[in-house]
Amino acid sequence: MNQNFGQVIRQARKEKGFSQRELAKRIGLDFTYLSKLENSRADYPPKEDVIRSLARNLELDEEELVFLAGRIPRKEEELLKLNYKAMPRLFRRIRENPEFARQLLEIDKEAEDKDKE
C-alpha cells in the first residue's frame, strides 16, 4: 500500500515513541503544523530542511521523504533547469505509458545494483 507523506511521518513518529509535541520541539516546529502535516491538511508542503530534519529524527530516507512531500531536492533542481524543455515530455510519457515508466525504473535498479557491487 502506498502511503502519503503524512501517513509515513505519523507511523514513523509512533514507532519511535514520540508525541507530536516532542517531535515538533525536536525539529523546531509548532506541533499544530506537524499535526496538519500528518493529517494532510497543511496548505503547502514543508520546506526541504524541515523534511530532512523529520527524516533524520525519524530515521527515514531523506531523499525519498523530500519527493514524497512533493518537493524536488535542491540538488536536482539544476538538472531540471538544464533540461527544462524536455521535462514536460518526459513526465507526460511516464504518466501515459506505464511500461516506459517500468523500464526506466528497472534500468535505475540495475544501475543501483551495479553501484553496490
3D structure, described in words:
By secondary structure, the chain is mainly α. It has helices at residues 5-16, 20-27, 31-38, 48-58, 62-68, 74-82, 87-96, 98-116. Helix 2 crosses helix 3, helix 4 (48-58) crosses helix 5 (62-68) and helix 7 packs across helix 8. The longest helix is centred in the last third of the chain and has 19 residues, at 98-116.
Share of residues in helices: over 70%
Beta-sheet strand percentage?
under 5%
Determine Rg (CA atoms, Å).
Answer: 17 Å
Major pleated sheet? none
Give the CATH architecture of the largest domain.
Orthogonal Bundle
What is the string of helix and strand elements? HHHHHHHH
CATH topology description of the largest domain: 434 Repressor (Amino-terminal Domain)
Distance from N terminus to C terminus (CA atoms, Å) equals 30 Å
Question: Would you count the extended β strands for me?
Answer: 0
Structural class: mainly alpha
Query: CATH superfamily name of the largest domain?
Result: lambda repressor-like DNA-binding domains
Pick out the low-confidence regions: none
Count of alpha and pi helical runs: 8
**Shape estimate:** globular
Averaged pLDDT, please?
Answer: 93
Count up the domains. Answer: 2
Question: What would the keywords be for this entry?
Answer:
mainly alpha; 434 Repressor (Amino-terminal Domain)
Layout of strands and helices, then pairs:
Layout: H1 5-16, H2 20-27, H3 31-38, H4 48-58, H5 62-68, H6 74-82, H7 87-96, H8 98-116
Helix pairs in contact: 2-3, 4-5, 7-8
